[in-house]
Amino acid sequence: MLILTADDVRSLLTMLEAVDAARDAVRLLSTGGADVPLRLNLDVPEQEGHTLVMPARVPELGAFGLKVISLFTRNAARGIDAAPAHVLVLDAETGQVVALVDGVVLTQRRTGAVQGVATDALARSDARTGALLGTGSLAPAQLEAMLTVRDLDEVRVYSRDPARTAAFVDRARESLEGRHGARLVAASSATAAVEGADVVTAATPATTPVVSDSAVAPGAHVNAIGAFTPAMRELDPRLVGRAGLVVVDTPAATVEAGDLVDPIARGLLDPARIVELGAVVAGRAAGRTSDDQVTVFKCVGSAVLDVVTAQRVYAAALDRGIGQKVAL
Question: What GO terms fall under cellular component here (predicted)?
């Protein structure tokens, strides 16, 4: 079995490669080429946590495995990751475990990558200005994905903590230097970041909307990445209601994500209007139809993204001789 660390994952998978993997994953999920059972949720109330087991199989790609991710809020006080995760890669022919992959970095990159697929499919080709709301663990990959699929001149970054925003911008400038030429600026408010932006990405744990309807310009594409439960929401329901196109990574988003549950309950959004990203990628559903159309992408995540991405990482590790081999 091969052990692949967080640093291994970073070195083995560029964002462009991650976007390609995510594109294949959502396409096959939409066309019936992926087997994704319901995830298992094990509550651990005495630790204010729960653990999810998320299996998937994609025969066409030889991808087979499962992710185990825990959300333990007390871990922050312990000085350890509040969302530890690992992905087991299985041999598609024998069912044997062939790799254990760090799931924290992999989750961050695959989540950025699926946003990249959506932005590439739905944003205007001449998009030049971006907005990023949130500076947490998902944010670096979200920023990199936006810059990978669109040649943006400027990205405005906002979070509730000005010092944290400034520090994020400084780190991002350093990490992206020489790869992307966009100007990164700290915005004074969410509205200041979003107004006039061609691509907007929200990656926050918000329970009240951070992207207002009035701030989003005609022709903008909006990604909602951070809110993943019915009680969470990043988008003004009026924005979702007026969007000309609403796209999801998986149909489960319509019942799991407050960004959709709320406008549907208010009668602002007809569920029949919602289309899967994989259907757009596969050409079975229309994407953007005009330059002034507002498009929205809502992501809640799927094990198929983890398993397909982990398979790519494992294949690259074998090819390049990276990772620690262990015998069990």
Answer: cytoplasm
Architecture of domain 2-106+304-325 in CATH?
A: 2-Layer Sandwich (3.30)
What pLDDT is stored for residue 81 in this prediction? 87
150's tokens: 């669109």
Largest CA distance in the chain: 58
Supply the angle between the helices 15-30 and 103-122 in degrees, to the nearest 10.
Answer: 70
CB 289 within 8 Å of CB 244:
yes
| Domain covering 124-301: architecture | 3-Layer(aba) Sandwich (3.40)
Question: pLDDT of 51-83, one tens digit each?
Answer: 999 999 999 999 999 999 998 989 888 999 888
Locate the domains of the chain by residue range: 2-106+304-325, 124-301
For residue 278, the model assigns a pLDDT of 98
Q: Which tens digits make up the pLDDT trace of 135-194?
A: 999 999 999 999 999 999 999 999 999 999 999 999 999 999 878 889 999 999 999 999
**How many residues in the chain?**
328
Q: Count Cβ neighbours within 10 Å for each residue of 276-302 and write b for 16 or more, e otherwise.
A: bbbbbbeeeeebbeeeebbbbbbbbbb
SS3 of residue 248 by DSSP = strand
Using a 10 angstrom Cβ sphere, with 0-12 exposed, 13-18 middle and 19 or more buried, the burial of residue 220 is buried
Reported as type and span, the H/E element at residue 319 is helix 303-320
- Report pTM: 0.94
pLDDT at 92: 96
* Residue 229 confidence (pLDDT) above 90: no
**Dist. CA 290–CA 230, nearest whole Å:** 31
